[in-house]
Amino acid sequence: MRKKQFLKKMVTYVCVAALTLAGTSGVAPMVSAEEEQPIEAASNLYKEVDVPALVREYDPGEGEGYGYIAGIDLTGVTKDYQYLQIKYTGDATAFDELRLEFQNGDAKLGVFWARENAEGTLKTVEDKELAAPSADEQTAIIDLAKSGIKNTDGITVMHFHGTKGKGKFEIKDAKFTNSDVEVKSVEAAPMVQKYDPGEGEGYKYLTGMDFTDVTNEYQYLQISYKGAATAFDELRLEIVGEDTNLGTFWAKENEQGTLKTVEDKELAAPSDEEQTAVIDLAKSGIKNTAGIKTIHFHDTAGKGAFEITDAQFTNTPLQVAKVHTDEPDASTTTPVVEPTTKTQPVDPATGIKLDGDDKGQSAMNGTYHIDITPADAKDEVTYKWLGYATFKDLATKDFKYLQFTYTGDISGMRLQFVANAGTSTEDKTDVIWFNPEQEKHFVTKDGTPIQMVGNNTTVTIDLEKSGVDMAKYNSGFHMHGESTKKAAFDVTIKDAVLYGGTPTAKPTTQPTTTKAITAGNTTVKSATKKKSAKKVKISLKKVKSAVGYRVQFSTTKKFKKVLVTKNIKKVKATITHKKLKNKKTLYVRAKAYIQIGKTKYYSAKWSKVKKVKIKK
Questions:
Q1: Are 33 and 76 in contact (CB under 8 A)?
Q2: Cβ-defined contacts of 427-431 (< 8 Å, 24+)
Q3: Disulfide: which of 2, 160, 165, 536 matches 529 by Cβ 3.0-4.6 Å?
Q4: Is residue 473 part of a domain?
């Protein structure tokens, strides 16, 4: 499990084109923001609008007097968003005379200063001024209402002004939210499984699971579930802290303890339709003062099966969009072998070339790069706007295919098609990824998988099958990419063509293949445990360039049944799991893995099996 901030999944990205401040000498250009519209759900859904255009360095310049710094387009910041969360660094005096002007269209909402001022003062949720910047990154959540900013109809533009000579500052991350706290979540992956008490009657122990990161910061348990209508009638959870049993809590009213949602209600009965509930630990009587370490599930036979499809502990009563692990299947992992490139780009005469030459339109062709996210960064992902490929008034509903050739990693790349004039804003497309691990991803014309790392590789996207109706979205598309702490995003795209009909595929004169992407093989150097303990100390051979290792335990040398699977970051680690306790014989094996974008690539082979040394 991992602690991480709310990941931007289950949200719809809507980007706006760059604006320009014309006719003002020496004025910084206005840059565009990306709008993210969360899907409609319960009224307590956490929402955020990421504003990458705010993420930049601000410098009023040297000298004295007024300094206009920048203008930022905030299209998409509706009245739902009453908080602006920023992370920043900079010179200690950079905020001394900083002021922000907010607008909704042509209507000015006022000027607000980072320091006390009669015009208006930016206030945090603690009702304080912004802390002075420093070399250390810090986070502030600006409360628009407390600041006097009346966001009743939305905010479309924000201008930055300062005084020359006051120093620079940099905003590292920025988003408008509907929450006055920095939302965090811990994925409770062990809970995501099917539960079945079986037939008959009487008490039934279902399963137990361990947690390592559920500290007292997390006071809410969010689960998504479905199943038999009676499955929760006698379901009860035994919750254990560090060394303390916190009690047994039932899904239905019980004197031992009852699980209560943030609305102070019992959990709704399961059904065939997935539903989500946010359990309030405090209202349920669960005193998470020192962290939760273990949860046991109990039920009564004959009450029916249910499935938990998502589970996470959070620090907010709001419903947070689902988060998912990107780890592959626990038992076996097949190295990724990239297929041979089979086709070359279609004849440009049959389509629209996205090379920037046709009527001055912007291009898809280019080389794109985002540096790896710094290891000490609080955010796991680095986001970047890559550009706007436009074909306004050129495409029609007959243009159903997008074909291009690429070299590099496209696992972190996504496109957002832009509606033509007159299309309702509610009909704007979702962001669509090339990575098939994402919920919304592109589909190829022939149904073959898109290889994530290409080498002069050509792909043909079927836009219609991918959910893009070119009768509506014929203005162009925005391009975005992201890298992680493990890998940078780097890709070159050429020969991009948008066309209709059937592509005229040309055979490759010199076929290009790519090798299987794998990590080197590792070796288990040692593994020891005490018989009564549930911990195994393990030491592995270090593999150059590997970012982690997958370790498996079994009670048989041939691993006919895998007992425990864990991913670790270091070659020396202590692995804890209740299934390891009191075993007379254990065997262990390991693989190394590298990571490109969001995808892990494992060793081609497991290490040699090693017997765990059991101490009495």
A1: yes
A2: 427/472, 428/12, 428/14, 428/37, 429/467, 429/468, 429/473, 430/12, 430/13, 430/467, 431/12, 431/13, 431/480
A3: 536
A4: yes
Please state the separation of Cα 302 from the chain's center in Å.
39
Same domain, 398 and 297: no
Cα distances (angstroms) measured from residue 31 to each of 28, 201, 586: 9, 65, 59
Q: How many CB atoms lie within 10 A of CB 413?
A: 22
Q: What is the mean pLDDT of residues 156-164?
A: 90
Number of structural domains in the chain: 4
Whole-angstrom Cα distance, residue 237 to residue 248?
6
**Residue 183: which residues within 8 A CB-CB, separation 6 or more?**
5, 6, 46, 48, 177, 314, 315, 316, 318, 320
Judge whether 191 and 141 are in contact, CB under 8 Å.
no
Tell me the pairing of strands 476-484 and 381-390.
antiparallel
Q: How many C-beta atoms surround the C-beta of residue 273 within 10 A?
A: 6
In the sheet that holds 381-390, the strands lie side by side as 381-390, 476-484, 413-418, 432-433
Give the residue carrying structure tokens 């998470």: 288
- What is the DSSP annotation of 294-349? EEEEEEETTS--EEEEEEEEESSSSBPPP-------SS--PPB-PPPP-EEPPPGG
Do the beta carbons of residue 173 and residue 414 sit within 8 Å? no
CATH number at residue 560: 2.60.40.10
Q: Are 452 and 514 in contact (CB under 8 A)?
A: no
Which token pair is 75?
A: 């299209």
Q: Would the pLDDT of 360 be above 60?
A: no
Q: What are phi and psi of 80, to 5 degrees?
A: -65, -20
Q: Which of 147, 163, 181 is the last residue of a domain?
A: 181
* Distance (Å, whole) CA 449 – CA 338: 10
CA 377 to CA 136: how far, in whole Å? Answer: 11
Tens-digit pLDDT profile for residues 71-99: 888 877 889 899 999 999 999 999 999 99
291 and 355 share one domain: no
Specify whether 277 is located in the same domain as 421.
no
516 residue type, one letter: A
Range(s) of the domain holding residue 430: 343-507
Residue in 178, 209, 213 with CA at minimum distance from that of residue 319: 178
Question: Is there a single domain that holds both residue 33 and residue 154?
Answer: yes
**Residue where a domain terminates, one of 314, 329, 364:** 314
Burial class (CB in 10 A: 0-12, 13-18, 19+), 184: middle
**Residue 361 to residues 16, 88, 153, Cα–Cα distance (Å):** 16, 36, 33
In a domain, 338, yes or no: no
CA distance 616 to 605: 33
Check whether residue 33 and residue 172 sit in a common domain.
yes
pLDDT recorded at residue 40: 35
Q: What is the pTM of this model?
A: 0.47
Residues 6+ apart with CB under 8 A from 402: 460, 461, 463, 496, 497, 498
